[in-house]
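$ fold --in a.seq
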Amino acid sequence: MTLFDLGAAEPDPPDDGRPHHPLLEAPRDISHEERAAPSGPLVRVALGVAYDGSGFHGFAAQPDQRTVAGALGEALEAITGAPVAWTCAGRTDSGVHATAQVVHVDLAAGLLARRYGASGAPGEELAALASSLSHQAGPDVEVWRALTVPADFDARRSALSRRYRYDVEVGRRNPLRRHQVWHVGEPVDLAVLRLATDPLVGEHDFAAFCRRPPDRPSGPLTRRVLDARWKDAGEGVLRFEIEAKAFCHQMVRSAVGALVAAGTGRIRPSDVVALLRSGERTGAPQLAPPEGLCLVAVRYADELGGSWS
């Protein structure tokens, strides 16, 4: 992801020079337990957010870096007049995109009623709020949905699954999509890609495909993959989609790197299986770059908005 539950060490993009609020400079999002509630009655609002990640140093706010959370936080502060804490469905890396990130925030009921005519009851669409946030956040961030949700909704913990897409460009390079694809530049066998992908579906220890968190220096990193498949998307693009309850850090990019190595003949499909079973990243193929990765859906229970995509 990883969107992820992702987070890679890519070169830092230049700082945009804008002032950063101290709250937005935390190296991670603020947890549900740590959130300082604004005064007065609150309404929990879920936001559907899309962004072009090529100009951001990932989603999560970081000191002296331009991030999606920073842009979104500044937009929220412009509307509310105060810093607003947030929780997202999955933090994406530098250069990674999203068409369906989900973020929840707690906003003052009085503000929502006064500005947007909101009753505060769960299930209310706040199109004017979404439009205002998009205008404030800038051209590379779009808030395409704002929905009031129950107070116990949590964008991260309530998610039933996340779905990512990864686009691989083969053959002739199209410079207009250089920030949206991994250009491989050599023949890739789609049938071999599919053969090598099948063993990833199900519950496995994905330690060989993950960058270990500091608090987990050893042991299994078990995840359940619900779906994983490749298709020819046309115009020289092979598209990988994968859905799981959760992803460990760099899991999708590591998997794509290994699968493309099989598709180009550098390793065999059976080597992907052996790597998965080994639980070790040593000797793993090249990590796929972030540009081709995009968070495309987050699924919740029907009463919490269903699938955001």
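$ fold --in b.seq
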Amino acid sequence: MKNSSFFLILLSLLLCCTTSISYGASDNQTGAATTGSDAQTIQLMSSPELSSLTGNWAQEYGRLNPTVKITMGNLDDVQGVNTLSFNSNDQSKAVNDGKGWKMIVGRDAIVAVINAKNPMLKEIHVQGIQAEEFALLLSDPGRRNWKSILKGGENTPIHTYIIDNAKVIESIGSFTNLAPTGLNGITIASSQEIISTVQQDVYAIGFCKLTDARDATTNEMVENIQILPIDKNRNGRIDNFEDIYSNMAAFTRGVWIGKYPTALCGSIYATSSTQPTDQNTIAFLTWVITDGQKFLNNYGYSVLASREVKSSIVSLIPNTILAENEQKAFISNTWIVNIIILLIVGLIVVAMIRYIKKHKLTEPNEEIELTPALNENTILAPKGIYFDKTHTWAFMETDGNVKVGIDDFIQHITGTLTRITMKAVGESVRKGEKIISIIHDGKQLNIYAPISGTILENNKALLSDASLMNTSPFSEGWVYLIEPKNWAREMQFLFMGTTYKEWLNDEFTRLKDFFADSVRSNTAVYAHIILQDGGELTDNVLADMGPEVWEDFQSKFIDTSK
């Protein structure tokens, strides 16, 4: 996190330097120009629901940069060409019509809210409600009762209320696979009215934006209102890694790292009729997507991932080079200064490396620079292969015997395997018992059998080259050939195709949650390697962890999947 912040600061400094060269001397820390009052002014507009957040940004930035004047207005006001607006994606034509310029600056969420005095509140928090149950609730008036969507629920009618907001209606339709016209809830015009209605009706469910249900004073849910838990992985219960509903901070963090359904997540944007070229505006936007992100959670929004921040900064910086009236002067006068800047940066980096080496943190940080990201798109899932929750695969050969191995997910987590221990030919195995130990530099994980049967053959090539499980997990890296015992029954618990991909998405969420909560030692290094810098994971994430982390991963991640 510190390294990323350091490089963002360097980018901002570079931005400031190029600004002062392009427009003349600068007398403030953001590089604001001094060529006239217009160049010192930033014109901001805001949709109503973002007015407080925008005002807070303007106030704080103005405090840090007193020479920059910021004017505020509403979207209904007449806007100039250089006006910068902050909008939610259901409010702005600039966002929806594809014209002009826009940049994401934060995340929003659509929520289902219930009365905190609902007599079935305990069952609701244990079971949650699945997307299919929401669809049933909103499409079939005859099944609109708590008993139909909740095990042990009372046979009492549910009154469903939906705020009259195009984005909310569209998101609910996407989440439930229903056409917006097929949503049969009672439409309510204002956010205050929908919250008031749910507060008074203990059996009601209301659909609105998260900010509609937030108390601005306490930054928690308004009195007598709770967010209805969603059973995202559709297994009939709210698992520990899905439980993000205890308070506002836990929920917004859960949205940030992917624990909440994507269809119910939205964005807030900075928009303008043209891409900003004014240096003060660019400096302000850079601050909004870096230091200004800390204000988002105070208003019920979630911060951007680091990859989004870096991408946005890159898209903004070229504008400092394209100042129309100063482009030639910039090209002729700044190359020497840029060389000086690079030399200064180099000296700072050398100093940092020496500091890190002194504190014995060099090697993990070098890995950070070289290790690619790990996400759902990097995992191989060949068609026709069954997958198990133990992160193993099974494939029936033409003779009826079944080959098994570990999946691509687990080998990406461990890094290159150096040794394995296998069972002998002729041994019987049962589904869910230890079938192989995979080892990386003395640290090991036990992997469990996806099926029951008798081992007919083991892959002896793995004894001399365990890395075949990394390079070819589905071909040369197979582990056993098994004569199955209960294939017809056990295959019903295996995944294939789209179902495996959907389950894998939840596994990545669970993985992020494990690292966020379990890695405690050497946190200065581990936190940066794993996900604290914007919710991203790195490939081979366990490789450089200590044995205590591997043991924790075994008990809290692998063993709980059996």
